[in-house]
Amino acid sequence: MSLLYDVSNSVIVSLCEKYQPLSPEERIRELYKDFNSILLTSSFGTTSIYLLHLFQKVNPTETIYFLDTTYHFPETIVYKNSLAQEWNLNVVDVLPDARRNQFTTKNEIWAKDPDLCCSVNKVEPLDKLKLNFDVWVTGLMSYQSGFRAQSNIFEYKKDIIKFNPIIDQTADDVKRYISDNQLPQHPLYQKGFHSVGCQQCTVASNGRAGRWENMSKVECGLHV
Fold it and tell me: Pick the catalytic residue: 118, 198, 201, 220?
């Protein structure tokens, strides 16, 4: 069943009520009963392994889209490629428009207008991708920021239903799951990077405090 053409506040509320009592894994299993076309993206960041492992258990053949801004840490690319090989993941790299990406590089737009840089290299490529799907799966968790604390299991934003199956998981839940399942961590995590984005806009720090340091920016724009 696809709910794509019947999106209203009552639909979103009903979905949230239905999925709330379920575990993250149960929510993902239920998603395949309610939707036909599922978009799964992953940043292959420090907590991404949790959601990726859940999908490995539910549907190991699901395509995983990676927004390759061209500015990722080399460690992130190595981590992504290593997981793809070891777990036989179907990862598709999504690149920004080459000319617009080159413009951000040549002019170092991340330092002058980070919102524009994120828009060119992340938001625009994802917006094009979303046109082909009913629902977009994210790895958002409430504890990560005040903005994310306002999110629910299902939301309707920018003309697509967002599904946040691990939104109510705590930092301890994530650490415990990774430890219990002996999952490989991002190589920068042990170096103090608790959240990893593009190189130019990320420093080692607890939580998301190291993203866009000394700037008012707290989100790349994908979720706002």
Answer: 220
